[in-house]
Each structure stands twice: as structure tokens, then as C-alpha cells.
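Quick start: what a row looks like.
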Amino acid sequence: MKRAGVEGPWAAGERILVLVGPDSMAASLVRAGRRLSDMMMDAPWTVAHVERPNRAPSSPAAAQKLREALKLAEQLGGATVVLTGDDLVESVLEYARRNNLTQIVVAKTRRRRRPFQPNLVNALLTGTKGAAVHIITESSESDAPEAPVRRATGPIPWLGHLGALVLVVMAGGVAYFVDRYAQSANLAMVFMLSVLVSGLAFGLWPAVTAAATAALVYNFFFLEPRLTFYIGHPSDVFTFAVFFAVAMTTGWLTGRIRDQSMAVSRRASGISAVLSATRRLSAAARAEDAATALAEQLAAATSAAAVVLTPAGEDIAIAAASPPLDSLSPGDMAAARWAWEKGEPAGAGTGTLPNAAWTFRPLQGVKSRAGVVGVEPKAIATEDGERFVSALLDQGAVALERAEFAAAAAGAEALRRSDRLRSALFNSISHDLRTPLSTVLGSATTLIDFGKSLSAKVRADLLLSIREEAERLNRYVGDLLDMTRLEGGALTTRRERVDIRDVLREAVERVRRRLEGRTVDRDYPAKLPMVMADASLLEQALVNILENAIAYSPDGTTIEVAAYEDRNNVVISIEDEGRGIPTNELERVFERFRRMEEATDRGKGAGLGLAISKGFVEAMGGRIAAASPIHEGRGTRILISLPKERVTPEYML
């Protein structure tokens, strides 16, 4: 229907608009809109406020009520929108037509209207077509006088009118000299210029003041008979009427354009500041960073000091301030605690502890209060300052709450990892340590009790089992100690010039007895450049990798140990012909206590060898990686890359 040019609203379901202003009825209107939505089967509803650039800004208390009403609407499930327009009724009706609204909720108050101000309810009833208007009357509680508060110091409104009068007086002086030396000059243009300048410099109403004053001065001093308000010639009456009309129209239009331009500029500046603050708050990972960002952004945007207080035990304490602040006075701390405990504003400009030097407001997050913010009263002296501070407080509260949730999640993750490590460690101790101990104990007991009756071959087998299981137990304990050093940050490396080939030979010799029918092929050149490494740590890392290859490859297979160089590194490669590692396990194969998920792996180690090798290699500035399968769906390759002592030029490779 919209594409066909048919004006709405169209019968496509109920849609509700609640019109609120910065007064005591705003919250009541929001609740009425929620009830109406419930009665209409959860019809979508929107709470709207119309900002008018040609109106004086609201007081901080009124702006606070409006902000609370908009927040209440969001909490109750409604949408919120802020419209801009000089004509309140036309702005509302245009929005209603554009969004196909069928219900409009508005308040009817008993307060006196300003001169020439139309009755909002009557205007809506007259102008609305196809939509119902619901009128909410003012309750008796709304008539109760509010507690007196100390208003923050703001700009003085009459200074613009005074400036306009000064400009008219200056124009009169210029007209006097022009009149003396140029008898036929059009003096009205001089006064017209003062009206234009007044509109551009001071706004709408000072321009109107300048237009009225200029007309009177022009009539009194420059129309015959002079020094009277009487106009002698009929033609001068027409001239004066045209001048007065043009001056008033020019002043009105100039002032209105200036006010609208300034309003748009302030809004654009505020939006840019909010976006900048939002980006910084979103990037804050810790509560301390979020508090610092909030304080600095508030101070930068409002040119006023700001302080953020967050929970510290059962009290609150300063978390950040801009400029830096060590402490607050007892009166300010009392106001801050009130805002924290009651969730209500306190301090300067409020009805609670108004003698404080700061205005404190709670940081209300999604689930709970995240802290308190204090600002100097001048930060919220204007409506734009109030709006910006309110928006930034909401962003800051969410950022602080998110940082707290992130810290709690990190703590929970650390506990989960610790619990998993503890479980794996207990599992390892219960099996990987007790199994060799049981073998050693059983073999030794058999030798003690029946040694004389056993043959030499049986005794030799038992002694060999004791040695092998003792070596296995020693390796497990060594792995646990090495992992403890890595986790505790106690690992120290001794950097020296190392020949990789020597370290490889020593590592192969250490595992030769455990090869059990497997062969080791060596493939490395006669010369390799030196690397800066810790020879003992590198040897232990290689031994762990070789033992892992022995454990997971069948008898009669080959383990290949190779080394080569590229421009920047010396690379060690150890390959086996075992069953390989599943692709989805490659990234996790270097984790602690990580084994292949098979019951037969129980006797093949505690799952620490590769994790220790990774820690040792990275401590020396190298890298380690795994690749599998490497040929015919089987086999695993472990690569270790260590930086050269000197980079080799490309033409020498």
C-alpha cells in the first residue's frame, strides 16, 4: 500500500506510539503504553520524545526524568526514538503516518501553557487520521512539589538579548553618521544588518528582540518627526511597516537557522564523542581499563573532571579519575555511597546531599550496579552535556559489567583447566607410576623369596624388568619435574653455540636400548651451521620425541632422523611409520597429558613428552610442529626449527 501511494495507517495490526516529555508524567505514560500493548496481544510499541531546537534546553532534573523514562521503556520491552522538529504536532503526526501507527498515547496536564502555544491534545485530535488517541490525565502525586535542588551554573540566557541591544545601538550610531553625510542613504539597511548579525551571533529570540528594538529606534530617531514615535508622512507608515515585517522575518529566520545549525553541530559532535568512547570502552578487557577509559572520555568530552568508583570489598573506592585524584572529601564519599547503595543520583544539583562538590550517578548494568561515576556540576549544566553523560554512563556500566563477567569467566576457565590437569595428574599417578612400581616390587619380592630356586635366566629376566621399569619410572618423574619447571617459570636456558649433529647422535644413543628391532636412519649433511641453543634441553626434547616415535610405531619399522638448513633456520625432522595422528588432533598433540584415545596407549607414557619438548624448544626461541599422515595414510613427522647464528645468503643455499 505504501508503494501504491495509499496513506496510512493501514489495517495490518496495532502499533502504539507513546509521546513523552521531560516531566513527571513520563514514567506514567511509559507504563500506560506497556499496559495498552498487553491488552492488544503484545502489540509493538514505541516511546518517542520530540526535541525542538527553537526551545530553551530543559533543566538537568527534567532531562533526568526523560532519560529514566526512556530507559524504563527499554526495560519493559518497548523501542525508543528521539525526533527533531520545531513543530511538535507535525513531527509526531509525520512519524505516525510514516510508521503506520494506530494508537497514540499522550498526557493531558493542568500546567499553564506558554503564550501562543497550541494545545497538544486538541491538535493531535484534530490532525490525527485513522489512529486512536489515548489521553492520560495527570495524577495527584504529580502535583506534589519537588524537593528543591541546587541548579548547576549554566549559560545566562539574557546575555544574548543584551548583545542584540548593543548591536542595535551600534547600528543607530552608524546610521547617525551616515544620515549626517549622506542625506539620501537608506538607513533601514543599517538596522537590518544589526538584526541579521544578532540572529547569527545569538540565536532566534535575541534576533526578535533586535528586530523590535531596531524598528523602534529607527522610528524614534530617523523618521519624521524625529524624537517621537509619531509618523508624520503616510509613506513613512508603509516604510516602517515593511521594515518592521522584514526585520522580524529576517531575524526569525536567521536565528532559527543558527539555532538549528548549532543543534545539528552539537548532536554530530556528541555522536562522534559517543562513538569514540564506545570503541575505547569496547576494547577494554579489564575492569581497570574500562574505568580509566570512562573517566578520560567523560573528562575530554565535557571539559570537566570525572571520577569512577567501583566496589572494593563491602565499600567503593576510586578506580580511575581524570585528572588523577587520590581521594574524595568525606561529604563527597557520603554522596557516592548513597548513589551506590540506593541506585539514585546524589550530590551537587540533586535533592540528596546537594552541598557535595560532585554529582554522583550509579552505573546501572544489565544485571546489577557496576559502580558510581562522579562529575563536576558544569559537565551536566546543559542539555547536551546531560545527554552525553547519560549515554556514556550506560556504555560505561555495560563495559564494566562485561569486564567483570570476562574476569569471572577467565577464573572459571582457569579452575576448569586446573581441575582437568589435577584429574589427569591423578590418573597418571594412579596408573603410569603405580604400574612400574608394582612390577619392580613384584620382581624384587620374587628374587628375595625364591631367588635360590630360580634359574639364572629367570633371575636375569626379573633383574632386567626391574631395571626397565625403574628407568620408565625415572622418565615419568623427570617429565613431571620438567613440566613443573615449565609451568612455574623456573626454566632457565644456557645459550651456546651448538652443532645439531652432535646433539642428534647423543639423543639417538640414549634411546638405542629401547628400539627393540626398530632401525634409525640418519640423513643430514656433513656440515651444518651452528645454532644458539641449550644443548642439554635440546637433547632432552629430541629424546622425548624419539621415545614417542618408538612407543607409537610397530617393531621392524624405521625411524628417520634428518637435519637440513634454510636461509634463517636449521630444521630437525623425526619421522616414524606408526599409525599417525588424526588430523583433528594435530593442534592438540602438544598439550599436557594428551594421548591417542586408545586403551593400548596406557603403557606408552604419561602424555607429557611432546608438551615438554614444545616448552623446551620455545624457551630456546625455536618452533615445533607436527604433520600426519606423511605416507600412505600412516606415519608422523615432528619438525623443530631453530634460528641460525648467522643468516645464510640465498646464493649460498
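That is the whole record. The two ends are 75 Å apart (CA to CA). The chain is about 50% helix and 15% strand.
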